[in-house]
């Protein structure tokens, strides 16, 4: 059975820092950045690279659709 590796891309300028994705992530690899976007919000970011499993929980709960989840099969 092939393993799945995931990655997320956050549209930082649209993110309003609602924190829903941080709570929804089962691996606890998403946090709010200390930096702010042009609207003054702390945006979500993946803090631990190469750990995402592509479960899409973060993308599902994002009210503004700012998170895109990518999945690839790894042998």
């Amino acid at each position: 059975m092939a393993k799945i590796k995931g990655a997320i891309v956050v549209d930082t300028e649209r993110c309003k820092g609602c924190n829903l994705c941080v709570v929804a992530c089962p691996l606890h690899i998403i946090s709010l950045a200390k930096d702010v976007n042009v609207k003054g919000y702390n945006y979500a970011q993946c803090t631990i690279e190469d750990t995402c499993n592509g479960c899409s929980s973060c993308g599902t709960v994002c009210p503004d659709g700012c998170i895109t989840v990518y999945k690839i099969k790894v042998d």
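The mean pLDDT is 95. The chain is about 15% helix and 35% strand.
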